[in-house]
Amino acid sequence: xxxxxxxxxxxxxxxxxxxxxxxxxxxxxxxxxxxxxxxxxxxxxxxxxxxxxxxxxxxxxxxxxxxxxxxxxxxxxxxxxxxxxxxxxxxxxxxxxxxxxxxxxxxxxxxx
Length: 112
Prior knowledge:
The protein is mainly α. The protein has helices spanning 5-28, 32-35, 37-56, 62-80, 87-111. The protein has a single domain (5-107), classed as Substrate Binding Domain Of Dnak, Chain:A, Domain 2 (Up-down Bundle). Helix content is 82%, strand content 0%. It is elongated, with a radius of gyration of 14 Å.
């Protein structure tokens, strides 16, 4: 099994940009439960962009970081699925989490 690095990087960047946009949308909503998502979406965007950097420089901690990224993307998606305006971002987070998990699985297979 091989992993397409370009697909992973594209998913990470798409998720980061979607989270940034989502945070901006949430800023303009006047609902407390939506505005509480802002920090989480900014954190998710930052983690995804850092993951891209680790992949590009072939950092030895990339696999461990992919676990963190996947977990945060799933947490973010779960929270964002509760609000109609944030569902597109939640979907980007789910796709990103799946790509991160696939990257981990491929690495584990190589190491076995």
